[in-house]
Every structure is written in C-alpha cells, then in structure tokens.
Design goal:
The structure holds two protein chains of two kinds.
Chain A: H1 3-30, H2 38-50, H3 54-67, E1 71-75, E2 78-79, H4 89-95, E3 108-110
Parallel strand pairs in A: 1-3
Antiparallel strand pairs in A: 1-2
Chain B: H1 3-7, E1 15-16, H2 24-39, H3 44-57, E2 66-67, E3 70-72, E4 80-90, E5 100-108, H4 116-127, H5 131-139, H6 143-150
Parallel strand pairs in B: 1-4, 2-5, 3-5
Antiparallel strand pairs in B: 4-5
Helix pairs in contact in B: 2-3, 5-6
The chains are: A mainly alpha, B alpha/beta.
Bound molecules: zinc ion (ZN).
Chain lengths: ~110, ~150
C-alpha cells in the first residue's frame, strides 16, 4: 500500500475511534471500558497528521468535511462512497505506489 | 443479541487455542496475524495500528482474565471476531493486574450499521462473567467445544 495512504487510513480509523468515544463513550464505559486515554489519543492523532504530506492533508480535510469520510473502500469494483465503477486498471496503479481518487466523487480510494 | 448470533461472525479459522506471546505488544501482533490468515487480510498493519490506538485509550482487559480488543477499521468489510486463548497468560495491562487468558477480538467496518459490534461486545462481556464458563473455555479441546461452552451447551 502507498505509505501515505496507510497513514490516511490509520488517521481516519483513529478519528472514528475518537468520535465514537465522544458520542458513545458512556455505552462503552457501562461495559467496563476505560477511556481515560482520550487526550493521549488526540495527541497521537496530531502526530500522525504531521507525518502526512500537507497538500494531501488539505485534500483529506476538505473531503472529510464534505463527505464525513475521505477514504472509502473499493468493494466489487465500486467506490463505496458514490457507487461509481472503478476501472480495474486503478488497482495496479495503486499497487505501483500512486494514490487514486474516484473520478466521479473525488474520494480517496482504498482496496481492503 | 444472543451468543449464537455473535458466534456467526467467527469461524474455526479464527480460533487461536494457545498464544505464544506473554506481553501486550507481541500478543496484539499474534492476534492480528491470526486474523490476517483467518480472513485473508491484505492490510494487517492497519488493524494492528487501530488496535494499538484502542489500547492507548484504555486497556481492553476488562473482564476477569479476559480482554476484548476491538474497533472499527477500513481494513475489514464486515464484523469479524477472533477467539484466542493463552495458557500461560499475557500481561495485558488489566485493571486488577492479573494475567489475561482469554481474548475476543472484534473488528468492524466503519459503516457497521446498527452497531452490531457494540451489541456483540456487550453480549460477550455479559456471557463471560460466569467463572464456571471461563474454566470450560480454558479446558475446551477445540473450536467446536469452545463455542459449545459459550452457548451454554
Ligand atoms: Zn466515488
């Protein structure tokens, strides 16, 4: 996987985790889970963001604002953000180290 | 959600009967390696990173001798549950300081509608409170026996 894409996916997973704790923390706490590390996790998020190319980070922020999730998985040759077909040639390009965005919606594509 | 429903998200390929790791870092790696081979994951590092972040938030070793590493990640397309056991015990930063012997690893996609994984987690935590059951799980010979014990059979 493209190293910058790897970072973006880790960042998006981490942002989801933080949001989940902020929105559903009490549910998890009721089950006995501690969430005292939330501030530490936010620091780790900032550290991760600093490792990402600033221009790409800008794109990621804009897409996140617009769609909620900037990176989406490609499943069955479709962008799961907008359901447009993704040409199979995109897969090999990503494997060759290029980031790919959906031609239809612009989201960053990830092959899980 | 009942336990039989929860167990639909696992399989004999997602059962690690005896972990070799004794510390948290290597245990997480071994658990993720188990997931990766069980469901043919292309990006195990993504899951490892997510589970490590989750542990930063607070240890998931919240049951008596039981841990529930969990979270959502783009790296999976549906809820999957890995079952693992350690005879020797793992130092997983548990609240009571006791070693962890049983692991239930839940990984779900970000879009997990209806919070299936939160419901599964709640069911597993409730089920595992029974000390007699934990003994049966430690003694189970194989995946089938392990699941049967969980189902109370
Ligand atoms: Zn799209």
């Amino acid at each position: 996987m493209h190293p910058q894409l790897q970072l973006l996916v880790a960042l998006q997973d981490m942002m989801g985790m933080i949001r989940e704790i902020e929105e559903q923390g009490s549910e998890l706490e009721d089950m006995g889970f501690k969430t005292e590390g939330l501030e530490k996790l936010k620091e780790a998020q900032a550290e991760l963001e600093a490792k990402i190319d600033p221009q790409l980070m800008g794109q990621f922020r804009r897409l996140t604002k617009k769609f909620g999730r900037a990176v989406v998985p490609v499943i069955g040759n479709s962008c799961t953000g907008c359901f447009a077909q993704i040409p199979t040639s995109f897969v090999s390009k990503t494997n060759a180290g290029r980031l790919q965005r959906c031609e239809s919606c612009g989201r960053i594509l990830y092959w899980p | 959600m009942d336990i039989a429903e929860v167990l639909k998200h696992t399989s004999s390929d997602l059962f690690l009967p005896d972990l070799q790791a004794t510390d948290k870092t290597s245990a997480l790696k071994e658990l993720v390696a188990g997931l990766a081979s069980g469901i043919n994951l292309k990006n195990p590092d993504t899951i490892l990173q997510m589970l490590q972040s989750r542990e930063e938030l607070g240890s998931t070793a919240v049951g008596p001798g039981v841990a529930f590493p969990h979270g959502r990640t783009l790296a999976v397309q549906e809820l999957k549950i890995l079952l693992a056991r350690s005879t020797a015990g793992v130092d997983f930063d548990s609240e009571d300081g006791e070693p962890t012997h049983l692991f239930f690893v839940l990984v779900a996609p970000p879009q997990d509608m209806g919070h299936q994984y939160i419901k599964s987690l709640a069911t597993l935590i409730d089920t595992i409170q029974d000390a007699g059951l934990r003994e049966k799980l430690m003694a189970a010979d194989n995946y089938e026996a392990f699941c049967a014990a969980l189902k109370g059979e």
